[in-house]
Amino acid sequence: QLTAFPEINVKLLGWLSDPLDTGESVIGISHPRGDHKRIAFGQRTRDVTIRFSDGERMPSSVGYQVAWTEGLTQSGSSGSPLLATRDGKLYVAGTLTAGPNIDDN
Question: What does the alpha-carbon distance between residue 43 and residue 69 come to, in Å, rounded to a whole number?
Answer without folding.
Answer: 8
